[in-house]
Amino acid sequence: MILDKGPWNEYIDETEESHRKIYGTDMFDLAKQYGTPLFVLFEDIIVKNYEKYRHALEKEYKDHLICYAVKANTSYCVLNFLSKLGSGADVASEYELQLALNAGIPTENIRANGNCKNESYLEECIKKGILINVDPEEELTIINEIALRLGIAAKINIRFAGFPVKHITSRAITTSSDWSKFGIDIKRANSVFRKVLDMDMLIPNGLMVHLGSQITDISTYYTVLEILIDLSRDAQQIGFEINEIDIGGGLGIPYFESEDWNSIKKKIKNTRKENYTWADEFIGYEFNAESNDLEWIGEELSSAYAPDTFIRKLFNEKYSANKTFKEKLEEIGTPRFVIEPGRSIIGNAGVTIAKIGHVSNTPRGENIVHVDAGVNSHTFGTAVPEQLHRIEIANNIEEDEHFETFVAGNLCFTGDLLCKIKNKLIRKPRRGDYLLFYDTGAYSDFFASNANSFPRPPKVMVAKDGTHRLLVRREDFSEVFQREVGLGIPRT
Ligand SMILES: Cc1ncc(COP(=O)(O)O)c(C=O)c1O
User: Fold this and answer.
1) Residues in contact with 354: Cβ distance below 8 Å, sequence separation at least 6, in sequence order
2) Cα–Cα distance for residue pair 157/125, rounded to 1 Å
3) Which residues, 6 or more positions from 229, have their beta carbon under 8 angstroms from its beta carbon?
4) Cα separation, 300 vs 256, whole angstroms
5) First CA to last CA distance, the chain
6) Substitution site in 340, 440, 443 for ligand 1 pocket (most atoms within 8 Å of beta carbon)
7) Which atom of ligand 1 is nearest to the CA of 340?
8) Per-residue model confidence as pLDDT tens digits over 305-344
9) From the CB of 49, is ligand 1 less than 6 Å away?
10) Percent of the chain, pLDDT > 70?
11) By the number of CB atoms within 10 A of the CB, which of 133, 148, 259, 329 ranks highest?
12) Range 44-253+304-345 has CATH code 3.90.280.10
C-alpha cells in the first residue's frame, strides 16, 4: 500500500522531468536552490486554515479571538503574515512575546502562557497590559508582588488542569489531565478564585485550559468545556469576573487518511510478525492487564475535523441540559471566546525536503535510508508516532518495484530515526535523491539545535502563484559557533 496523500492531492502535481511539484513549484529545484534539509511552507494553506477558523467563528460567535500559537512554527515572517490576517498570538516566553510584538500583534491580542515564567517575562506582560494565563497557583503571589512593585495591576486568566480525560493524545503532549505539569487543579478552583479576589493587584478576567495537542476526539472538548462553564458560574458567584473563556489550542490534523492510519496501527500491533517497527517496538501501544491485550495510548494521526467543522460542532453540539456551548456561554454573560491554534493552522502547510546520502541495511537485514536531516529538525521525540509522516521520493517519481524502509537521520545516536515505522516508497531510492516529508509545518524545528554542529535549516515560503522567498537562512560556520568566546583563527 502506498499511502494516500490525502489533502495534498489538491495541490500536488508532477513536472515533465518527473519531479514532485507543489503549488506549481518543483521541489527538486527548490532543494537544489536552497540546499537541504529545507523547510517549505505554503502561504495559501496557512491562509485557508486561518480563514476557516475566522469564518466559522464569525458565524457562530461574534466575540472571539484567534491567537496563533507561536511555538508551533516560530518565525517572524509567519507571525507578521498572520498578524496581517488579524491573528493574535499565544506566547510562551519573553522572546516569543518580543517576536509577536515586533511582528505587529497588538498587545490586547496576546495571551502569555508558560508553567515557569521568569520575572522579566511577567514584568513585560504587566507593563504592557498583556493578559497572563496563571500557571501554577504559586504564580498568583509572584504576579501580585511584581504588579505591586510596578504599581500596575495585572490582568489574569486562571489556567486549569486535572480534568477527567485519558489517552486523548500521547502522554508527552497531554496538558489537562491529572498528570500534567501545566495548570491548576480544578479541585482548587474555589479557593484560587478567593485568593485572587484577596490580592490587590490582580484583575480577574477569565478561565483557560489547553487540553493537549493533536486532539482528534471532539467529545474531549465537550467534557472539559462543560466543567469550565460550571467553574465560571462558581467564580461569578463570589465576584470573580468571567470576561473570557480561553480553550487553548490542540485540534489535530490528518497526517493520514483514516483507512491508512488504521492499517498502520494494526501493523504496529503485529510488528513481531511483520517486522514493521524499529526493534519491533509496539510504538503507541501499552499492555493492559485487564483486557490482557495491547491498548492504543498514543495520539491518533488521522483527524476528521478541519478548523471550520470543529468550530461548528463545538458551538452547536448539545451539551448537558440539552444546551449548546453557545447557549451555555450566553448564560454566563457571553464572555469572549479565545482559541490558540498552532498545529491546525500551520501543520499541514509545510513539507521538509532532505537529501539521501545512502541506502543500506541494518545488521538484521532491514532497509534503511540515510538522510541529511536529524530528529532535531523533525519533531524530536515529542511523541513517537508523530515522527510518522507521509514520505515520498521527490524526483524520478515514476513507480517501480516498491521499497519498504526505515529512515535514519545524520546525528550520532541510534535514536535519531526520522521514521521508526516502515514506509513504502515507490522505488528503491539512490544516493542524491530527495525525500519529501509531508505535514511538517508544526513543531518540526521546536527542538532544533546544532547537534553534531550541523547548522539549523532554512525556511522558505511558497506563494499561491508558485513564487518563493527565504524566511529563515541556514546558519553558517560562524553562526553555529557564535556563542564561542574565542573561535580561533582559521588556518591557511
Ligand atoms: C498554551 C498553549 N496554547 C496553544 C498551544 C497550541 O497547540 P496546538 O498546536 O496543538 O494547536 C499550545 C501547545 O502546546 C499550548 O501550550
Assistant:
1) 36, 37, 38, 371, 372, 373, 418, 434, 435, 437
2) 13
3) 245, 319, 325, 328, 329, 331, 332
4) 9
5) 54
6) 340
7) 4
8) 999 999 999 999 999 999 999 999 999 999 999 999 999 9
9) no
10) 96
11) 133
12) no
CB contact set of 35 (below 8 Å; sequence gap of 6+): 458, 474
Task: Name the residue with cell 539521501.
Answer: 356
Residue 397 in contact with ligand 1 by CB distance below 6 A: no
In words, the CATH class of domain 6-42+348-480 is mainly beta
Helix H segments across 174-246?
Answer: 189-198, 219-237
Q: Is the pTM of this model over 0.90?
A: yes
Number of C-alpha atoms within 13 angstroms, CB side, residue 291?
7
Q: Are residues 158 and 148 in contact, defined by beta-carbon separation less than 8 angstroms?
A: no
CA neighbor of 228 nearest in space, from 166, 169, 160, 311: 160
Residue 330 identity (one-letter amino acid): E
C-alpha atoms less than 13 angstroms from C-alpha of 278 in its C-beta half-sphere: 21
- Which phi and psi angles does 359 have, rounded to 5°? -125, 120
Ligand 1 pocket, 157 CB below 6 A? Answer: no
Beta strands in 43-149 (DSSP E): 64-69, 88-91, 110-112, 131-134
Residue ranges covered by each domain of the chain: 6-42+348-480, 44-253+304-345, 258-295
Grid cell at residue 375: 530528529
